[in-house]
Design brief:
By secondary structure, the protein is α/β, with parallel strands linked by helices. 18% of the residues lie in helices and 31% in strands. It has three domains: 94 residues, Beta Barrel (Elongation Factor Tu (Ef-tu), domain 3), CATH 2.40.30; 112 residues, 3-Layer(aba) Sandwich (Rossmann fold); 84 residues, Ubiquitin-like (UB roll), CATH 3.10.20. The chain has seven helices and 19 strands. The relative contact order is 0.11. Bound molecules: FE2/S2 (inorganic) cluster (FES). The site of FE2/S2 (inorganic) cluster (FES) has 14 residues, from loops.
């Protein structure tokens, strides 16, 4: 963990504040790549992830933007109400689950609401690289559009498109207009509330975007209700081995114990690293990574948090 000091706290929009965190001492902060987040540990014992939104070129500070969520379970409200300038707080080193595809020849960034935060760092980085990109920022109304002013004054402002849901029809986002044409090496990045993300991701899928060119980041997982969880079996198609998944353990844990290695990162259904092909059976999807349309195909699932509706799942392992 790192100790940092809150250097500045700024009201950026209705219910959104930014926090500028600086190193305690003279050492620069660990470097980060665009799309990275940090874990912030609060005095109430709650840890929350927030994307870094400043330029990755900067080593003297991390900037995060925090939406005050009325359904907060101790995270965002504590940030808004309890964290003040001068306080020392503990954070993790930056981690990146939403990296830029640097070999891409063009990048389309779609942000909804507070989903603008990782996109800001990406836009800064792409501008430094003189890369070809567009940033589409959708928000409910201009008073809720954090960082919109800074974007309009940024050196890359001609690449920024603001879409105000409460504004004139002609400036509202028509996703198909921007996603209708697919070219190799053009990459799409999406971050925002789940309704927004599903809309963009479903539009991209209906236009035929290949999965490898679509990148997404969901916010931290919402709590999963484990009441009523039942045991089930998992069969590994390659070896025929059958594993019992107890009601209180995840498929990932049981596979890991059996020596079956699956890539993982968030372990809460938001990053997609553990996605595994399902050959038979019906998963009980608990992740926030796949869209409802992707989940409905039932041909893959996230073993870190998802379970099974059928007595057995056959996995392509
Ligand atoms: S490890 Fe992140 S979705 Fe499973």
């Amino acid at each position: 963990m790192l100790q940092v000091q809150v250097f500045q706290k700024t009201a950026e929009a209705v219910d959104i504040s930014s926090f500028e965190l600086r190193a305690v001492g003279t050492e620069p902060l660990p470097p980060f790549s665009p799309g990275s987040h940090i874990d912030v540990c609060m005095a109430n014992g709650v840890t929350r992830q927030y994307s870094l939104c400043n330029s990755p070129e900067e080593r003297h500070r991390y900037v995060i933007g925090v939406l005050k969520d009325p359904s907060s379970r101790g995270g965002s409200i504590a940030m808004h109400e309890n964290i003040e300038v001068g306080q020392i707080i503990s954070i993790s080193e930056p981690r990146n689950l939403f990296p830029l595809e640097e070999s891409g020849k063009k990048h389309l960034l779609f942000a909804g609401g507070i989903g603008i935060t990782p996109m800001l760092a990406m836009a800064h980085a792409l501008a430094v690289l003189d890369a070809d990109f567009e940033l589409h920022y959708c928000f409910r109304s201009i008073d809720r559009a954090a960082f919109a002013g800074a974007l309009q004054e940024s050196p890359f402002r001609e690449r920024v498109y603001l879409h105000d849901d409460s504004g004139a029809d002609e400036q509202k986002l028509n996703a198909k207009q921007f996603l209708g044409q697919i070219e190799p090496d053009v990459h799409l990045y999406v971050c925002g509330p789940s309704g927004f993300m599903n809309h963009i991701l479903d539009t991209a899928a209906s236009c035929g975007w290949p999965k490898e060119q679509v990148h997404r980041e969901y916010f931290a997982a919402t709590a999963i209700d484990h009441e009523g969880d039942q045991p089930f079996e998992v069969e590994l198609a390659i070896s025929g081995q059958v594993l019992q998944i107890p009601a209180d353990r995840s498929v990932f844990e049981v596979l890991d114990e059996a020596g079956i290695e699956i890539p993982s990162s968030c372990e809460q259904g938001v990053c997609g690293s553990c996605i595994t092909r399902v050959l038979q059976g019906v998963p009980d999807h608990r992740d926030q990574f796949m869209t409802p349309a992707e989940q409905a195909r039932n041909d893959q699932f996230t073993p870190c948090c998802s379970r099974s509706k059928s007595p057995r799942l056959v996995l392509d392992l």
